[in-house]
Amino acid sequence: MLDELTGSALDVDAITATELSGFAMRLDMSDTLAIAVSQSGTTTDTNRTVDLLRSRGAAVIGIVNRRGSDLTDKADGVMYTSDGRDVEMSVASTKAFYAQVAAGALLSCAIAEAAGVGDERRRHELLSSLRELPAAMQEVLARRASIAAAARLAPGKRYWAVVGNGPNKVAAEEVRIKLSELCYKSIACDSTEDKKHIDLSSEPLILVCAAGLVGSTADDVAKEVAIFSAHKATPIVIANDGESGYGSAVSIDVPPVDPALGFVLSAMAGHLFGYEAALAIDASALPLRTARETIERLVAAQLSGDQVVASMRTELRSSIAQFEDGLRSGIYDGQLEASTATRLAGLFRDVMSDRAVEQYQLSSGKVGSPAALIDDVVTALTHAIDELTRPVDTIKHQAKTVTVGISRSDEGVLDRALVQAVLEAGAGRDVLSYRTLKVLADLDPAVEAVRGYTRYRIEGQTISIIDRGGISRDIPSRVEHGAHLRGTKHRVAREGEVLVAVGRSDGRTVVFIPEVKGGETTGLTLLHIALPERLPVDVMRGVLQGYDRRYDRLVDWVTETEGGFDESLLGELPVAELLIGPISDTADHWRR
Fold it and tell me: 113 and 122 in contact (C-beta within 8 Å)?
């Protein structure tokens, strides 16, 4: 923007901090103004480069979100992009990008005016267009349904790419980051015209950022899209309303804005595409989640192994049919590993056989038993669900919190009563992952009291008691009579997830908390808790959103048949049922 506004009268370069510090430093940089762009203001590479620039005489302006950060201290001047929240808790943040673009546009106009170069009328046009941009962004948001329809093409494609040229290359790079963070994929990003030379043989899904393009540039992109299609790729073009010349079978239309700002709408449509693609991938796991919950319900009913296997053949029929339909239609091709799909399909065939255990022994080569078959099916389901799950509303890549300047990732979590109870029971902070702490913090409003605890040590398949407190001291434990890890404790150790459950023999409500080191579960903390009878709707919603995605899963179950979800029932149903009961049974309360 600055280069355009000044008619190239200034030498303007856009460069990453590491490239500048490594290859573009001069001894005397007193003729240089450096604009350092950072969300957190704590990124090491950026701040180190700022120090080097200042030591060589350069002036520095920071575009930064976080007040009081290192960059704000180092810069000669700062443009803050904060909209009321300084610390960005979500890796897939979008507001930082849009705010930085707006700040950059304003600063470009100010520099051009201060330097006395460029056209005042063009600056006025750009600033006026910037004022009108929020309305266009609202219009893009209103088109979410059509973007979601395009995103449903994504799950069946294993390889994805994002392309753009000119300002849209900026959008492509930004969208690539968000697609990767939301959908957990390695995604290529290229200039539109270079893509045909690289990996079209993989028949990828290609998101083409082309909003704001006009004239010969738009014609050139249309030719590239035709090449993509000819190589059996699936191009999806983000373009201005009425631009029908790209020849793509699928397009995402955005309202026309100033060509210099069109890339912002490409980025926004791409952000929404990534979110909807992640939802579509996650939704494909629904029949598998249903199957696993059905098995857990059957096991919890204390049926014999043979009875559970016989019931699985009947009750899993619908879930298995949906999974097989998905395999045939290709919706799992892009996300589920072939080995995972093959193993699960084989186990499902065993389950549906008239002689399930014998068939399982024949196909697996293992000693057949109902318990072994049930355990292998649950393990295979869990593995497949993990490959398909996309918790788009949570933070998965905790390591990235360093780059966005969160120096105390436990802030607001450790002070919760339920978390404190686990720590006081003896679990070390080093064996409790942030995810575990976050789930406990979200569960905290649903726990009236902690009445006792038991801590266990796990070594391989054996379990032993380390310590007890409260009512646990007087409660007999099966571990005292057998050290083999099994049942619910085995499930928690295997999956490494917090679990709220009811004891089979005594009916007491407990929370199992895994203690993990080096990726292995080394212990468990069991808390005896008391639940309130009911909670207000908003509180219950928050608890369910934070624990095992139960809110999303419940909404999926209900809306699949009812078309809508009445939240008011969350305040009328018992907390224990909402937290512990099978989702399928709980959903029955919404049936008309």
Answer: no
Q: How many residues does the chain have?
A: 592
pLDDT tens sequence across 394-421:
544 433 333 333 333 444 578 899 999 9
**Residue 102: both structure tokens together:** 């707006």
- CB 543, CB 438: distance < 8 Å: no
Contact 384, 341 (CB under 8 A): yes
Closest CA to 165 of 30, 276, 250, 266: 266
Residue 315 pLDDT exceeds 60: yes
CA distance between the termini of the chain: 57
Long-range contacts of 410-414 (CB under 8 A, 24+ apart): 410/434, 410/437, 412/441, 413/437, 413/438, 413/440, 413/441
Q: Which among 59, 61, 55, 49 has a CA at the least distance from the CA of 23?
A: 49
Give the whole-angstrom CA distance, residue 306 versus residue 134.
62
β-pairing verdict for 234-240 and 160-164: unpaired
Which H or E element spans position 541?
Answer: helix 537-546
Q: Provide the mean pLDDT of the chain.
A: 89
Give dist(CA 444, CA 539) in Å, integer: 10
Report whether 185 contacts 278 (CB < 8 A).
Answer: no
Structure tokens at 78: 């700062």
* 14 alpha-carbon distance from chain centroid: 30
Residue-wise pLDDT for 424-446, tens only, equals 999 988 888 878 888 999 999 99
Nearest Cα residue to 265 out of 110, 92, 143, 127: 143
225 Cβ contact list (under 8 Å, min separation 6):
208, 235, 237, 246, 247, 248
- pLDDT value at position 409? 40
The separation between CA 487 and the C-alpha centre of its own chain, rounded to angstroms, equals: 30
Q: Which residue has the tokens 């646990």?
A: 472
User: DSSP letters of 82-126?
Assistant: -SS--S---TT--HHHHHHHHHHHHHHHHHHHHHT-S-HHHHHHH
d(CA 268, CA 137): 7
CA distance 524 to 515: 6
Helix (H, G, I), strand (E, B) or coil at 334: coil
Indicate whether this model's pTM tops 0.90: no
Query: What single letter denotes the amino acid at residue 188?
Result: A
CA distance 477 to 528: 13
Give the Cα separation of 281 and 38 in Å (integer). 31
Structure tokens at 292: 């696993």
